[in-house]
Amino acid sequence: MKSDLTPTHFPLSDLKHDLFASIVVFFVALPLCMGIAVASGAPPAAGIITGIIGGLVAGALAGCPLQVSSPAAGLSVIVWQYIQTFRMEKLGVIILVAGALQILAAWLQLGQWFRAVSPAVIHGMLSGIGMMILAGQFHIMIDDAPRATGLENILSIPAGLWKAVFPAEGGPAHQEAAAVGVLTIVTIILWNKFAPKKIQVLPGVLVGVVLATAVTMFYDLPIAHVKVRDDLLTIIELPKLESLAHLTDTSLLSASLALAFIASVETLLSATAVDQLHSGPRTRYNKELFSQGVGNALYGLLGALPMTGVIVRSSANVQAGAQTRASAILHGAWLLLFVAFLPFVLRQIPTACLGAILVFTGYKLMNLEVIKELREYGRSEVTIYFGTMGVIVATNLLTGVLVGVGLAIWKLLYTTQNLETHLEQLADAPAVTYRFHLMGIATFVSLPKLATALEDVPPGVVVEMHFESLRHLDHACLNLLESWKKLHEQKDGRVVIDWEKLQAKTYHIRHRKKEPRAAKWYDRLWPR
Question: Is 464 exposed, middle or buried (0-12, 13-18, 19+ CB in 10 A)?
């Protein structure tokens, strides 16, 4: 794969690959953009506008050239919650501020730090989001109204199944909508599994939409269809002055901070995954974060949905042979041309079909098989996973992520204070002698535990200190041992300890013998 060049310079030899890849990504992105918009409680066209800007703007500025930015299923839950709480007119302000925060984070070179999240938290977040999407879109798939909360959506699934299997006479056509949804999911699964590789370049999502739409038109089924206006520009709403006055509202600012954090984490983790799919130029994380910030700031101004880098469309981009960022840019152009000249085609798509696509996407996001992988790293990782997922389902996305991060920090603190001590008396020694074993990690966090163990040593005895299994010792614990040794010897005791080896367990001593660092400019002002 050749190096990616500037946004305005694409080798002609690569354009044929990028052109083909952009068409594949367009076919994948079109139904997903509309479906995610519906899942977010926004007009389908808002998702398409997000896909257009994600291609034309974020694609040109991206630090991960082969990543595709669009509305993401992972954000649909939090966006839906924001629309329910703040209404659509305030959503643009939230996205605008979130984009500004991403630009600020990129300027502060914080791109790499957004990747510093425990895998258990990430998997728990994706599973929680997947469960929320599946439960909410199940009701869309049967032409029923989703409930107010994710937990209510889950609990009302049996009632929805009853409506789909045993419809009320003269009531809504839940049975027909459910049949179209099931047809869409079955088509996607069978196409992905059994279609010949030569034609699998056509995404299963597109095949499912085409077949479901054709069946709906042929039988003239009385189910809901996508509503798209002829003029896409009519849904664009610039923030009003009264909306901008809410910038001082702390609830909106906290919502923007949460959106910026979650969108950045999802984008940069996706970029890392894309890097593993090809051997071309690696991701420049701060540049990618900047491009996302610019795109989201524009979405806030235009009243569209927020975007992230998305692995589904990005992997399709790489597998279709994309060579440069031109494929991502062109896919945005195809979206723009399609909705500008063929909006009547979109109005033939049944809403149940889009709901089914999101039900399938939610199921894939849950990925419960990852529990086996996490179990290999200890029960604590599984606890963090279920804690994150459970709180997301029971409350909201931000609270769930914060709980997950809190559990991960608690595990870190527990690990760093994982100090074990053991005191034993030697029976065959000429004098009363004890062995004191130190194992694990001794830091200031475990200082109380170490002090309590040392207090149990009887006065006036010989103590042999053994620390072969001690992995690390910090300055606080070293000072405690030195103070205890002096106090013990003052009480006619004796301590046998190799201080040189013990000090070698500290970070400072381990790194003292490094090569001298190069002189810095400020050494002239403040000599060492």
Answer: middle
Residue 3 in domain: no
Alpha carbon distances (Å) from 425 to 93, 172, 455: 69, 81, 15
Instruction: State whether 404 and 423 are in the same domain.
Output: no
Range of the domain at 482: 419-510
Closest residue by Cα to residue 91 from 201, 221, 273, 240 = 240
Regarding whether 137 and 186 lie in a shared domain, the answer is yes
Close Cβ partners of 199 (under 8 Å, ≥ 6 residues apart): none
Q: Is residue 354 part of a domain?
A: yes
Q: Please list the residues that pair with 420 across neighbouring strands.
A: 439
444 and 404 in a common domain: no
Q: What pTM does this model have? A: 0.76
- One digit per residue, the tens of pLDDT, for the chain of length 528 reads 444 444 445 555 667 788 888 988 998 888 989 989 988 888 888 898 899 999 999 999 999 999 999 998 888 888 988 888 888 778 888 999 999 999 999 999 998 887 777 889 888 988 988 898 899 899 999 999 888 788 888 999 999 999 888 877 766 778 999 999 999 999 999 998 998 888 877 888 989 999 999 999 999 999 999 888 776 666 666 666 666 666 777 888 889 999 999 899 889 888 888 888 888 888 999 999 999 999 999 988 887 789 999 888 888 888 888 888 999 999 999 999 988 888 888 889 999 999 999 899 889 888 888 999 899 888 889 999 999 999 988 888 778 888 998 999 888 877 766 888 999 988 877 788 999 999 988 888 888 889 999 999 999 999 999 988 888 888 888 999 999 999 999 989 999 998 888 888 876 554 554 445 555 544 554 444
